[in-house]
Amino acid sequence: MVRRGGQKLRVSIAEARSNFSGMLKRARKEPVIITRRGEPDAVILPFGEYERLRRLRAYFSMMRLSRELEEVGVTATELYEVSRKELEGRLWLR
Q1: Whole-number pLDDT of residue 32
Q2: Beta-bridge partners for 39
Q3: Which residue, of 6, 47, 54, 61, has the fewest CB within 10 Å?
């Protein structure tokens, strides 16, 4: 296990493999960076943190889409109506 300055805990793949349950236990408190040949390769983090990051990513994607639609003059109501009609059409064809 290595800590560099104020950085997060870093462990090699070999160490993570040999003590995976220990890595999971540590990851409940702080992210654990898994390295391959000394370079970051993956991160183990609590599921709640993963979910929070996933929701943030979805939120920012929606914000980007909203700006793009606004730039071309499509309103949220128009998008909803078109999407609803398409979905109803697909369900009707089943």
Answers
A1: 93
A2: 36
A3: 6
